[in-house]
Design a protein that fits this description.
The protein is of the alpha/beta class and about 220 residues long. It is about 35% helix and about 20% strand.
């Protein structure tokens, strides 16, 4: 491991806005995010596979009366997101360092008001289908930790992943499912809050269309 990575891991180990294995909070937050971490009764919204946290930070800036949690397994990404939160003076942001498949270890059933899946690895190989963050096993996880009538959002540049996900949701008879294969030519753009990550800006420059869908948990 490089010296810079070690330094970043040391930094996030001291940051209150980072919840990770080894910290006391890691084993206390399940079912208690509002009381133990945020110390308020506001809505809690999570972003899985948050990367550097640009979407999480963007939403937290827009809605100071809501709580946001960016989830990623990579410590260096968590460091970047938590640094941005500190630089922006945001107290309504947490970063959880854990694998998405362990979501139920950190959230009680129905604890989240909304969940975002933003630009995940499309994992195009058929043998990797179960590892896609929109595969059936992950959808089941999301639908357990999001409250009934809460919203689940998905945003991607990958047409194959989007088609795969859309077909799966249609088979599951997802409630209030709305979608577009070209976000910026649709009337759904306001749902994505006009937030663009560095990756999304790059995709748009390359001429890729951004796909988006949302549905209501039941």
């Amino acid at each position: 491991m490089s010296r810079s990575k070690l330094k970043r891991f040391q930094v996030i180990a001291e940051r209150r806005n980072v919840v990770e294995p080894g910290k006391e909070l890691f084993n206390q937050v399940k079912g208690n995010w509002r009381t133990v971490f945020f110390q308020n009764n506001h809505d809690v919204i999570a972003e899985v596979g948050c990367g550097k946290g640009e979407y999480t930070i963007g939403m937290a800036n827009l809605f100071p009366n809501k709580n946001y949690i960016g989830i990623d397994i990579k410590g260096s990404r968590i460091w970047k997101g938590s640094t941005l939160a500190e630089e922006n003076g945001l107290t309504n942001v947490a970063f959880l360092r854990n694998a998405v498949e362990n979501l139920e270890d950190n959230f009680a059933s129905g604890e989240l008001n909304e969940l975002w899946i933003t630009f995940p690895d499309p994992r195009p190989r058929l043998s990797d289908a179960k590892r896609r963050l929109t595969s059936e096993r992950f959808l089941n996880l999301y639908e357990n930790v999001v409250k009934k009538e809460g919203i689940i959002h998905f945003k991607t540049d990958s047409e194959d992943l989007f088609s795969y996900t859309l077909e799966l949701l249609q088979k599951r008879k997802a409630v209030n499912l709305v979608y577009t294969f070209d976000l910026y030519a649709s009337d759904l753009q306001h749902h994505t809050l006009n937030i663009q990550t560095t990756y999304e800006k790059r995709f748009l420059v390359e001429g890729l269309k951004i796909k988006y869908l949302q549905y209501t948990n039941r």
